[in-house]
Structure formats: C-alpha cells, structure tokens
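Inputs:
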Amino acid sequence: MAMTMTQKILAAHAGLEKVEAGQLVLVSLDRVLGNDITSPVAIREFNKFGFDNVYDKDKVTMVMDHFAPNKDIKAAVQCKMCRDFCSEKEITHFYDVGRMGIEHALLPEKGLVVAGDAVIGADSHTCTYGALGAFSTGVGSTDMACGMAIGKAWFKVPSAIKFVLKGQLNEHISGKDVILHIIGKIGVDGALYKSMEFCGEGLRSLTIYDRLTMANMAIEAGAKNGIFEVDEQTIEYIKAHSDREPVIYKADEDAAYDEVIEIDLSQIKSTVAFPHLPENTHTTDEIGEIVIDQVVIGSCTNGHYKDIEEAAMIIKGKKVAKNVRAIIIPATQDIYLKAVENGLVKIFVEAGCVVSTPTCGPCLGGYMGILAKGERAVATTNRNFVGRMGDVESEVYLASPAVAAASAILGRIADPKEVM
Amino acid sequence: MKFTGTVLKYGDNVDTDVIIPARYLNTIDKKELASHCMEDIDLDFTKKVKNGDIMVAGFNFGCGSSREHAPIAIKESGISLVIAKSFARIFYRNSINIGLAIVECPAAADAIANGDEVEADLDNGVILDKTTGESFKTEPFPAFIQEIITNGGLVESIKKGIIK
C-alpha cells in the first residue's frame, strides 16, 4: 500500500514494511526532548521505573528555556531538578543558561535532528523539525518519561492533508503569513490528528526558516506533525549543522490523502491572527486602526536570525512609537551573537527596543513582557489564547516579524509597506 | 469503568492555557496545580467542583500546549471523566497516559446541560443523562489503548512489561 512521508518514517521506526492510517504502532525514537517546565514532571514519572540510566544519554535532550534564566524561586527549583538529573544520568545534550536557546531553534542549529528522524518532545511545538524532513511531534511528560526509559513511544498512524505549494512569496511576506493563512483557511482543528505534508515547486522559494516557522505552527491546526519534502536546501542546511547522514523519505505518488490543498504563494498577503484563536485571520489591507501597547519579536516560531534581521531592516533609522514597548528576543546564543556582530542590536537599541537573551518568556505569559488588563500586543509568537501573554483581558495579535516591526514603529497594527 | 457525577460544561477549543495558565507551571505539585484549574475560563471552578464530577465540552478540548499539568490539574480537582465532541491529540494521549478517563461523544456533549446528573458506563459504551433520561452510545477505545488504561497508565504498563 502506498504511504505518505510521515507513514514511511513511522513504518521504518516501528520495524514494519508498511503501516496504514489508524494503525497503532510502537516507534523507536532518535531523540527525546524536554524543557524546564515539562521535564520535572517527566523526571518524577521516570523515577517510578527505578532505572539507573536513560535509554541513550546522547539522545535524551533537555533545554532550559521557558522560565530560564530563572524567573522566580520555583522556576529555579525546576531548572535545578533538570540540571541535577542530567548531571546524574550524564546526559550529553543538556542546555543551560549561557548555552541554551529556545529549544526548537536550538536543536536544528546544533544539528540534533536530521531528515528521516523520529523525534518526540514534551512541548507542543516539537513539530517544528518537520521542516527538515523528520517526523517530530509534541507529547506530554509521561510520554517523555517513557521515551527516556525505553526509547519508544506509541502512535496512531495519521492520515494526511497534502499542501501543494506553487508560485513564490512577494516582498515582506514570509512563512508566518503562509501558515497563518492556512490555519485561517482550515481552522484550529482543521488537521486534528493528521499530518500536514508540504510539497510542490513553491517550496523552492521558501527558506529553511520559512519552513521551520510553518512546521512549528502545524499544531495550531491540531496536526500531529507538519513535514516538508526534502530538497537541496534541506540537505544543504543539514550538512552545515550535523555530521549525521539524512534519510530522505518521499511520499508515494499514489499515497492516499484526506484532502489536497493548493496554495499559490504569490497570492499570500501580510496576515494577522486576531484574539483569541490562531484561526481568526485577517490580512493587513482589511483591518482598521488597532492601537497597540507592546511588540514581541522572537519565540520558537520567529526568533531565527532571518526573522531578527528582517525586523531590524524595517526598524533601522526609525523610532519605536512613543506608547509601545518593543521586545526583541533572538532565539539562541548564536543568533544573539550574530545580531550583536552585525549591528542589529545597535539598530534595535537606538530605535528604542529592548533586546533580551534567549527565552520563551512572554510567549506563554511567563515573564519579560506580561500584559496588563486591556493591553494589546502584536507578537511573532504562535498562540493568542485568552490570557496567553498576561491578563485574561489582554489581547495578542499574531503576525510575521515584518508586520510586528512595522507595527512597533507606527504604534498600531501595520503593513511593512507603510514604513518602507 | 463507571462514573456518576454532576456536569460542569464548557464550549469549543478549551485550551490548556485556560485549563492551567502558564504562570502556574513553575510547580509540579498536583494539589497546587488543581487549585488553579480552569482559572482563566471559570474563576469559580475550584469552588464548584465536587469529587466525581463530570466535565463536558465541545470540539478540540485541550488544544494548545502539551503541558501534562492540564489533565493532572483536572484529575486532581476531582473530575472523574471528561466527555467532549473531540480532543486535541496531545491532551488525548496525556489523559490516557496518566489515567484520566476521557471519551469522545459529540451527541452527548451537545445534549447534556450544565448541572445535569450523568452516569457513564464506558465498558458498555453508554452515557445516560439522568436529568433528562436521554442516553448516548460511545465507541470503545482500541484494545491497545484500553490495555494502557486498565493497567493504570503508561508507566505502569511499561513496568508490567506490557509495552517494551
């Protein structure tokens, strides 16, 4: 029977020749990831096994990014619990303050995921690595604990929606606009339990960073994973970051899809998701004046160097609007350093932005930019649920780095063309 | 698995950020998590909820973050069963893995009202709204998932050698 990309990776990791949608399989894992808020629960569960060691100390990975650098005493206790565990179990890939970045930007950068891998992470945005042609999905802490113990996880083999991309993106339009457009089209449960598979000649115009942003938000359509067909760009990226050999899985020509959706990239406009669901999308040419209090540019979705650079080019030589706090968060130490070396931090500071070290911080209402009642933020993050960035009566508008940067300058939700 | 309780009802797309806001994720203490359960969608939840109560909701229940703190908070608050039109996939597997009973039943989720008394017999696939007398059929879990539930969750299933 013909299989999708995802089904082929799952079959290979379950030791089966073929699998079909709906089948329950036990899958061997190439990487098991956790962060400072999900790992403590996983460690508590792992300790119930009474095992001395994790299944593979090179494959278990922990990143202190959500509430780190420690936001309060309780967060400090949680990070310490992870640190002590990783030290005792001699975990190779433990990333603490000074070496860490936001996990889903850090793992590709460190070459810890390559095409063909099967990865679970106790973080819903683990689906990001589908951009590199891997099967990766978010799970909970108990799954992480069991993954650390036996290196396996159970899955129901998903069916898939195929997205055939054609054309190319216009200026100031990026992967964020594409994925917001798609979520607006299919809804927050439009791909529930399914894979979103991206292919087509339009892939060529999407950088790896556009793809990472798109795969990252597959979960916001309810998907199990988002995955991109591997091309020369993918291979080039993987070779530059990892010594491991990628394994390329291509969907069979006659693989069954629940739906095939064609997306013409040249038709995508700057898109913003209004509160309180990522599916509430509007294009910037159809919204009135929405005055804002804060802008956040960063997160696992849009904290890549390309994102920070794009924002800097728009902000360069201008000033942030008087009543706006603009918070820039490069996602990893490498991105931060590059932003310093290339003068981006200078551009931001001179414009009146603040530049933070890597952290998930405000994205999930942790710290470093919490909103008061009635306040509004434009954020390059991934969720705009009730209370996500602070008070239950605050509002988050999701947008691309270009839209967020233009909005910071004008003090209202704005299209990049208005300031360029 | 049989459950009897009073219903607390919610809408579609109840996300894990409102089930347990991230500002409380700096702890793994189950009781503390339960004390903030549903806080951003229903401030009175912790005052209203009684041991054994049944939560009923619409589509895509538990969407968003993978935080297992969400089903933990619901379970610890005393909720015995969650009935929804559909569940977000991570919440679904987390609930099974930690032993929080859940069932998808769109017809029941539509018809049952807040405050109704409900009896659910998941072994025989029947949900009865005792307040209205209406009953609903549910689909059984696949055998593999049923085995995880029967054995007390994923960790226990691995310890017993059922999954290796």
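The radius of gyration of chain A is 20 Å. Flag for discussion at group meeting.
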